[in-house]
Amino acid sequence: MADKTVVDMQDKLPQLKEQRKQRSRRRFIVYVSIFLILIAVMVYLQSGFSNVKSIEVTGAETMGDSEVIALSELNHEVNIWSLNKEDRTERIESHDAVTDASISRGWFNKVIIHIEEYKVIASVSQNEGKPLPVLENGKLYDSAEVKIGSVPLLRDFEDAALIEETAMELGKMSESLRGRISEVIYNPDESNPDRVTVLMNDGWTVSSTIRAFAERMEPYPTIVQQLEPDQEGIIHMRLNPYFESFREEEDITVE
C-alpha cells in the first residue's frame, strides 16, 4: 500500500509543477499588464491626448459663449482631469450677469459650462450713445445686446442706487405687465423724491413712485378697463389709485 502511494505522488509531481508554472505565468502576465496600463495612463496624462478638446456653454443668453469661456480661463492646453472646477466657477460667478455656474466633463475630452444669468430687465438712456442694458440686480451690462422697445427704458436716472431699486421693482412684476411699460421717467419733486412718470405701450400715462412700484402697478390692467379709450389724463397709481382727467371735470376714483 505504501509503495502505491509513493508511485501516485511521483505521477502527480509533474502535474503539480506544471500547475505552479501556469500560476506563475498568470501572475507575471497580470503584473506586466498592470505595469503597462500604469505606463499608458502616465503617458496619456502627460501628453496632449488628455487636454480639453472642446468647450460647450449652455444657459448663456445675455452673455456670449466666448465671454464665459474667457472668464473660465479654459483652453486646449488645460488637462481634462485637472480642471480646478471650483476656482473656475468662482471666476465665472464673479461676473455681474451670472447668478450660478457649474463645470462638468463630457465625452471625448469635452467640457460643459452651464450658467444661470440675471435677465435684462430694462435699459437706461445716456446723454450720448445707445441705451445701456440693466440687469435684474440693477447692474449695467454694456456688453449685452438689447432691442429698443423690448424692455422698459429708464430716463433721467443718474443715481445708480435708484436704477438698482427700479430694476428690482421691475423684476417683481409679471412679464405681461412689465411688457406694457414703454418708459419710466424719473421726475421727483419736493413732496415725492422718488416720483416717476410711466409711459405705457397702450397710450396711457401713469404717475407713481419707485418705492413699492411693482405693488402699486399690479392693478393697472383692471383699472384701464374701467376707462374710456378716448379719455385724456394721468392714472395715479398710489395707495388709492385715481384718474386725473385733463378736461375740466372731477377726477375719477378707480378701484
From TrEMBL:
The chain crosses the membrane at residues 28-45. It is a single-pass type II membrane protein. It comes from the Bacteria. It is found in: Cell membrane; Membrane. GO terms for biological process: FtsZ-dependent cytokinesis. Keywords: Cell cycle, Cell division, Cell membrane, Membrane, Transmembrane, Transmembrane helix. Residues 50-118 form the POTRA domain. GO terms for cellular component: cell division site; plasma membrane. It holds the Pfam family FtsQ_DivIB_C. Cell division protein that may be involved in stabilizing or promoting the assembly of the division complex. Belongs to the FtsQ/DivIB family. DivIB subfamily. PANTHER family: CELL DIVISION PROTEIN DIVIB, CELL DIVISION PROTEIN FTSQ. This is Cell division protein DivIB. It comes from Alkalicoccus halolimnae. The lineage of its organism: Bacteria, Bacillati, Bacillota, Bacilli, Bacillales. The gene is divIB.
